[in-house]
Amino acid sequence: MPSESPHPRAEQFKRTVAKIAGTIQSTICLRCLEGPPPEARTPLGLEPPPPLCPKLSDWLLCPWDWLLRRAAQAMGPRLRSCCGTGSVRRQSCSPGTQYGLASCAGAAAQNLEVEIGVVGTPGASASGSPGATGPDGPTPQQDSADVELTVAMLRHWLQIICVVLFSALLCICYHYQVYAASTEAGSPLPLTCHSHLNKYDTRKFGESQCGLGAADCQPTSSWRSVRCNGWCAQDQGDDIFGRKVVGSGPYRADSKLCMAGVHAGLIDNQGGCFDVRVGGTSSGFVGGDRNGITAVNFSSWFPVSLELRPSPGALHCGYDGWWALLALNVSLLFFLSLLRLPKQAMFWCMLTALYWYCAVAAFMSHVQTTTVVERSGEFMVFALVSHLMLWEVGGGKLYFPDTARGAPIDLLVLELLPSLPFLHINLMGKFFGDYDLNRAILQSWRGPLIYIVGAALLAPLAIVVLRRWYRSGKMRSCV
User: Fold this and answer.
1) Which of 118, 247, 248, 349 would be a feasible disulfide site paired with 285, CB 3.0-4.6 Å?
2) Are β-strands 305-310 and 251-252 bridged in parallel, bridged antiparallel, or unpaired?
3) Which long-range contacts (CB under 8 A, 24 or more apart) does 158-162 make?
4) Beta strand pairing status for 224-228 and 189-190?
5) C-alpha span between 233 and 245 (Å, rounded)
6) pTM of this prediction?
7) Do residues 307 and 250 touch, judged by C-beta distance below 8 A?
């Protein structure tokens, strides 16, 4: 059978709806993004804004510039003899990165996009050729240009050396923070705040491995060292039947070990090590509130219990070095800005340092080597998204502090210090309750409040970026 043709009025109705939808989209969704008329547009800044506290910045940068200049003056003849007679040649000696060099007297940045011997300064030579040398050797202008290029070369290699050394230093510190714990009994077993002895777990009926009358769970005479995460008192969470910790010493064998250690006063919010041993039967367990942990009563016989004691010879067990690691990251990044690291290199150094601080140290917990490998893969995605959303679209290419020209105070005040509270945003949930969106809306007002406060802090930044793109007429090209 031949197919029936659609009704003409239906086709006309569809075309009308499509036309109206296209008109609405073009007038409301797109025309509003075109920005002001061309004559009223404000171009995106081609030049970086003036640095904050320029006198203080010059005072901080001056010693390093002076040291590099003195080193360049001392090493200049040796470099010239290494790279060939005459002036230092940029192609063979100086790496490709360019720097704006400022003297201690505040001289303007010099353009180094020239070869030595072709420096266009007035009166460089009597013959009119800027690169010509006098009868007694290079002219003063040529010597000055040699020094400037030597300074740029030394600065570049010093930056590379410092980045490599700082990366190695941070790796050693992270290893010391996470993996260096030890006791007389050997390396402690890393646990989370909610770890318990699975063999003695009685939270779910029929899943205990102790057998009838706990015949398979006899007391042990050996002590085992364990290491617990930090902030366990603020991470009690929810547990079936409320059995987080049962008893006050001895504890019931299915209690959460780290929370029992906090309750007993063996560890604090910085984490730490203690020894645990499975004890014998008990006719009952008396609970109580201690050190921020609520232990419940159990007035009945139980076949096995837990005995706790401090770990003899415990070293480096706590995760209390997080603040030192955070201060070290900020200090090293600030020092790199004093070496006038290029803007994009400084951007990536900051993102990389803060990412790995969050991935390894911020949560004050043990990190498995497999987790480090996984987070290395996640860093690739993080780097791609950061490049697109922060550097290209978000305006980092234009508005990130230009540390190559000398803006250490800008980096510290506008980038590093504002980012510090967000590195430990996980603590907000410990102090203000669970901020998981699916649960917080139904259980507490604190969760939505945290989201509202976070949005209020980020909204002005987003509005400023979008306003700049709108006024420049670039927003329409990004949609």
Assistant:
1) 247
2) antiparallel
3) 158/68, 158/339, 159/336, 159/339, 159/340, 159/341, 159/345, 162/335, 162/336, 162/339
4) parallel
5) 12
6) 0.71
7) yes
